[in-house]
Amino acid sequence: MRRAIRTLHLILALAGGLLLSIVTVSGSVVAFRTELDHLHANSPSGAAGRADLDAVIATLESTYSGANIQRLVTPEAWSGGLHEWWLRDDQGTPRDREDDEAWKAFTDPATGAILGDTRGSTVSAALAWIAMFHHNLWLGKTGLIIIGSSGLCLLGFVVTGLCLWWPGLRRLRNGFTVRWHRGTFLRHFDLHKVVGVVGIPLFLVIAITGCLFSFPWMRAVVHSGLGGTAADRPLALVPQDQRPRSTPGTGAITWSTAIATAIATAEATAPTARVAVVMSPRGETGTWTVLMAEGLASTGAYTGLAVRLDRHTGAVIDTSDPRAMSVGGWINSQVWGLHVGTWGGLTTRILHTLCGLLPPVLLFTGIAIWLHRLRLAGQVRQQRSAANATESSPTESPERALDPRESLPMG
Q1: What is the pTM (predicted TM-score) of this model?
Q2: Residue 4 class from Cβ within 10 Å (0-12 exposed, 13-18 middle, 19+ buried)?
Q3: pLDDT digits (tens, 9 = 90+) for 198-226
Q4: Where on the phi/psi map is residue 378: left (φ > 0), alpha (ψ -120 to 50), or beta?
Q5: Shortest CA distance to 318 belongs to which of 342, 294, 339, 287?
Q6: From the centroid of its chain, how far is CA 136?
Q7: Sheet containing 67-73, strands listed edge to edge, beginning at the edge strand earlier in sequence
Q8: H or E segment at 236?
């Protein structure tokens, strides 16, 4: 059984080890993308009051001609005291529609002044490229399937690796020991097992949530399998049109109206709720989506209330409150925060980032162990071949062995 598990572990490593390492490292690189983007903005004034969002929208549209404002992220969603606007122009190719953003602009929440943007930034563009690569390898739905499959490989690594690591209760301490000075093989072997077992909790969280992102059917199974109903189905499972290439049509309500309506709606169930993210309608029949941070949920924008509004009338279509959800609905509503580590604030984000760097270590040490065993197996085969050759060769007769002439010096 142990040999079969080791073989399965090796097959999974050969099939997805390199891809998994690339995906997790890319996720670690963009984990603090927001903070890096904010380096392009000046510090806010810190003044009291709130800027008129409609006036801010007009300023953005005049400054960035042809820009389509996709999203507003407020300071409640770990945005560093800034209003962060996601913009994209409508001049791109159909391939560009897969990208969630072209650049970001930052405004002062109190005065509405533009504090900077990431337009033309090589670093920001590289981070955006890496983020999309991490999401779907720039291959659309095919890439999502590949990424989801790498998550399944990670789950397989966890299960088979845990079985191979388990030393028993009496020798449990040995499972966390690294023999640094007992040779290269033992050092790599111990590092592989210790790094792997230490990372298992976060590996499970990242792998499962990554699969839920890639496979909508898994989210539906989790939702229905854990008591979910149509009433508490998260917005991620509600069908919506694709993101438009142009601004909402005439007659649509304004950003300020959408936010004010969302606040009024949320106050009925959560008086302390605050707007975290506002997303514009998607398509002609799309809705406004407003995500609220409430209480401890302020560590991650996607852990609080969600409100959907009619794009023309501002009427509340439905609300999504994790506190009133079934277990399946709650898990689906927390997928984003669990995957990126916002569920526990800065500490968990750092842990998630470090966890993303562990698969390359496991890949390197695993390859070293595999190569060592291949060399060892080759040596064993050579020794057996030599032994078989010796046994099969004819032996010399005693008379020849005792011939005294063979012991005389030549000449």
Answers
A1: 0.80
A2: exposed
A3: 999 999 999 999 999 899 889 889 988 99
A4: alpha
A5: 287
A6: 11
A7: 114-117, 103-107, 83-89, 67-73, 274-279, 287-293, 306-310, 316-320
A8: none
